[in-house]
Amino acid sequence: MKQSPLLHFESSKFAIIPGEDEETNPGIFGKALAQWLSERLRTVGVSAGQVIAEDFGWCIPIESKPHTLYVACANADEGPGQWQIFAFAEGGVMARLFGKDKSAESIAALYATVQRCLESEPSIRGLRVEE
Predict the structure, then answer these.
(1) What pTM value is reported for the model?
(2) HEC states along 25-68?
């Protein structure tokens, strides 16, 4: 799996939905953030699917070929209202084997779009990148 750097930020916009961490690991939240970001991505032309739960957070599947792209959203350890997001790719085994893997470029483009979506939201503060 290849992934982008983490985007960290603070916002009180994304309320914890009762019981959402029953679908992830205990104490892992971010469903409202993922739903909001999925909608934002669709408005800027990204083919974002329905939000799905994973152990580590809430993922937005992104239509892409030959690999599958995702944006992962979760709360950060720093406390309430602290969030983190990253993009990652799965698949493309044959492309990697033959040295034609373009997933890094796809991740970078998706990451830049996600970052612009976050920067345009007034309720998001302290947006920073963690390599």
Answers:
(1) 0.90
(2) CCCCCCHHHHHHHHHHHHHCCCCECCCEEECCEEEEEECCCCEE
